[in-house]
Amino acid sequence: MLSDFNKLMTFLTVARERSFSKASAKLGVSQPAVTQQIKYIEEYLQARILERKKNGIILTKEGEELYRTALKLEKCLISAEKELMKIFHKELSFVVSASFTIGGYVLPHYLAAIKESINNEVYINIKSSEQAIEDLLNNKCDMALIESPVFRDGIIYREWMEDELVLFSNQPLPKTVKPEQMKTFNWICREDGSHTKKIVGEALEECGLPYDMDGFNVRSTLSDSTAVKHTVMYSPKDEAAPYVSIISRFVIEEELKNGQLFEARVKGGKITRKLYIAYLKERKHDAYINSVVGHLLNLRR
After folding, report:
1. Counting Cβ atoms within 10 Å, is residue 18 exposed (0-12), middle (13-18) or buried (19+)?
2. Are strands 143-146 and 94-98 parallel, antiparallel or unpaired?
3. How much of the chain is helix, strand and coil, in % rounded to 5?
4. How far is CA 238 from CA 230, 235, 243, 256, 262, in A?
5. Model confidence over 234-264: pLDDT tens digits?
6. Cβ contact 257:251 at 8 Å
């Protein structure tokens, strides 16, 4: 009987209106049909739930208990209906797990435009590229934006934009730094295993310098781009041996504009890497995903 909520809805309406005729009019069914449904409930429960009085209908003790239970079921159904409508009308938050550089320094430029594009809230989880992909595989996010190529089965990867890694300091540097000058600097480095450090090491190796930076004056090793930026920014200024690091240009963009930091390029060319948009293959025809992907690709800088 509980699975047939129409009968319980009839009971709730009769209880609220305190009248079979008023309940009949409100439900748009005949009064005999209302009476029949109440009779069915009483037979099913083997108990009287309503009594007719001169001033209308009153609930019996059993009827009061049923009324409280039916109200709980009604609230649950209303809540479930609202959640379904959110899904159909795309009112649920769109969750993005983004790597540290993207989440902290790239997405803020685009967040308002993305929200407007999909007419929805966008919630950002900031974590490592590896963790962002794990979130995607575990359905904890709708999309992952990563700076490290963590490739897994079942995921579609779209190249998004190019990220340039630049040599920077808190004092002016030559526009182009020769490889032999690199060993004269005080270095603030990323930790072993960092994708940024791997890219930097490969670029240095192409310049004829050791991949592991052997012989470099490494002053600190840090695990976060923001910490690297701030450490260099507030380091003592030494013209003979400036404090430097190599970092995503996105991370220091504002400081470069306002003159707090200065950049240079390593002789031999730009150091770049790709940033990726990732989402599950099973959602490749999802209009919602495609809308966000399309918007991100159109916003490439």
Report:
1. middle
2. parallel
3. 45, 25, 30
4. 17, 9, 8, 19, 14
5. 999 988 899 999 889 999 999 999 999 999 8
6. no
Q: Which two tokens stand for residue 14?
A: 């009769």
CA geometry: angle at 173 spanning 147 and 168, to 5°? 20
On the 0-12 / 13-18 / 19+ scale of CB atoms within 10 A, 277 is buried
Picking from 242, 250, 202, the residue whose alpha carbon sits closest to that of residue 226 is 250
Cα–Cα distance, 293 to 278 (Å, whole number): 9
- Residues of the chain with confidence (pLDDT) below 70: 1-4, 80-92, 195, 197, 203-204, 206-214, 300-301
Distance CA 245, CA 200 (A): 10
Can you list the positions of beta strands (E) in the chain?
50-53, 56-59, 94-98, 122-126, 143-146, 155-169, 176-177, 186-190, 217-222, 243-248, 262-266, 271-280
Q: Which of 38, 73, 40, 46 is nearest to 62 (CA)?
A: 46
Q: How far apart are CA 145 and CA 124, in angstroms?
A: 10
How far are the Cα atoms of 62, 108, 181, 288 from residue 142, in angstroms, in the given order? 48, 18, 45, 10
Give the tokens for residue 6: 């129409």
DSSP 186-248: EEEEEPTT-HHHHHHHHHHHHTTS-TT-TTSEEEEEES-HHHHHHHHHTSPP-SSS-EEEEEE
Q: Are 145 and 102 in contact (CB under 8 A)?
A: yes
Angle between helices 249-257 and 225-233 (to 10 degrees): 30
